[in-house]
Amino acid sequence: MGFEAWFTIAVVISVLIGLILYQRAPDVVLLAGLTVLLVTGTLSAEEALAGFSNQGMITVAVLFVVVTGMRETGAMTILTNTMLGRPNSLRAAQARIMIPAATMSAFLNNTPIVAMMLPVIGDWGRKHRISVSKLLIPLSYAAILGGTCTLIGTSTNLVVNGLVLDYIGETQPDPRFVHGLGMFEIAWVGVPAAIIGIGYMLLLGSTNLLRERKPVIDQLDDPREYTVEMVVEPGSPLVGKSIEEAGLRHLPGMYLVEIDRGDRILAVVSPQEKLHADDRLVFVGVVESVVDLQRIRGLTPATNQVFKLDQPRHNRCLLEAVVSNTCPLIGKSIREGRFRTTYNAAVIAVARNGQRINKKIGDIVLRPGDTLLLEAGESFAKQQRNSRDFYLVSRVDDSTPPRHERAYIALAILGAMVISVTSGLLTILTAAMLAGGLMLITRCCTASEARRNVDWQVLLVIGAAFGIGRAMDTSGAAGAIAASLIGFAGENPWLVLIIVYGVTMLFTELITNNAAAVLVFPIALSTARELEVSFMPFVIAIMVAASVSLITPIGYQTNLMVYGPGGYRFSDYTRIGLPLSLILWAVTVTLAPIIWPF
Q1: Do strands 254-260 and 265-266 pair parallel, antiparallel, or not at all (unpaired)?
Q2: Residues 98, 142: contact at Cβ < 8 Å?
Q3: Under 8 Å CB-to-CB from 261, ≥6 apart: which residues?
Q4: Per residue in 265-296, is it b (16+ CB within 10 Å) or e — as a string?
Q5: Total-model pTM
Q6: How many CB atoms lie within 10 A of CB 492?
Q7: What is the C-alpha separation between 69 and 57, in angstroms, rounded?
């Protein structure tokens, strides 16, 4: 090896150490390594920046827009609520979570899937008195395993496909892969791996291997409770359902106090009570549950003031405002004080030192210290932050009302994208860009929401890792390491495949999945060249090994996302994930050479 090769290896080792030590900033570490290679002339500017125009990276970016449309319309909630239902045992609950999560993750990036299902699973577990620590690791693992079943299931698959497209002319020109891998190419290994993984979790997930933990952050012992009224819309899917069937019986942190049915008031509400159109439901509960009520299709705030605000509902959010003793509306009812006209905001609910206020929203007389839950434009907080009328104004996270009327449009766009790619009508990049554009055109999401939901850190990691991977190839470092692997394995491609999978799996657990795939790819490519064998078994092995991170919470975003809410410890992942990782290692290196012969 020449100096450039040794220097590149030193930079890569430094990057790996940096990624392990500074787990919260993988983009900074990888960009620093790329900068060093660029400044020293190891890479040209074109080579260093080529990763940021790679098809795989652009596809990942556009899919964030597609997922934003699914979330903002409530389409994802429709899918999850339909699939979860009511389990009769822990194993049934885990199955109801894992199978839908794996299925959806096959066609949507698994990180946003877990982000959207996490609060749903938390509430669902509390409703059915199941510890969330028994549900959230299975959720993360199922999303990871489902992502290995299709080309668009995880960003890692798209990144590796981009590498295949970049390197196809330099390796062995195979007409089957001139346009990259097929939509379900990886499914030959991914589907068996997902089935085995889900079966393993269902078999052992209820045992002591997955221990019961308490979440790090529990609800406060004495939370601030709001009194809120919601109306059942005529023609909504809730009409004719019982309170229990509508999912309104065991709401976490909230309970249904009464139903106002015009001619009569039901003060004691039976779980079997059927809902009627225009029923006014009075709830008492915490702000997070009020946000959940806003997301239920067919329920709207009882006050008609929300429909008189200037901004459209999808441009609004919920805010909490504490009334000060200098507010001009003190001593007046919300209706008398013309609150909406004065502040361009509608009062949804009122909290008053734990008291239940037995009045309709418009009739409540304001007092100093009352906490108001408001629906208003996002600019309200900036306008009123320094106002003497309120002691404090704060925005409630993730409280923009969903565009329920466009949910089925979003589902149709997603279905059309999957069908067009599966049938070969469009490439993945073209279909994703078209789907993202349609989400914007049909107003399933706004441009600002789309920009806000793009995970720029993930994209920077991918782009920088591409550049470092190219340096491994052009400097000769990958070829030298490949020669060492061949020498160690005795030119046995199967043994080399085992080693490549193991190295990729180790890197994935220590650093990031995309970086691991990009760094190992040139080594595997050089090995296939030296052995004069097909590169496809190595490509599949890298895809699976880099995608399936089960041993540590730091190896993959979804594991980190459930770490705190589930109250887990580091050892919980190793205890249940290590045996499964070894099983999937054996499955992949056995099946890959059989399906794609060397």
Answers
A1: antiparallel
A2: yes
A3: 276, 279, 280
A4: ebeebeeebebeeebbbbbbbbbbbbbbbbbb
A5: 0.65
A6: 12
A7: 20
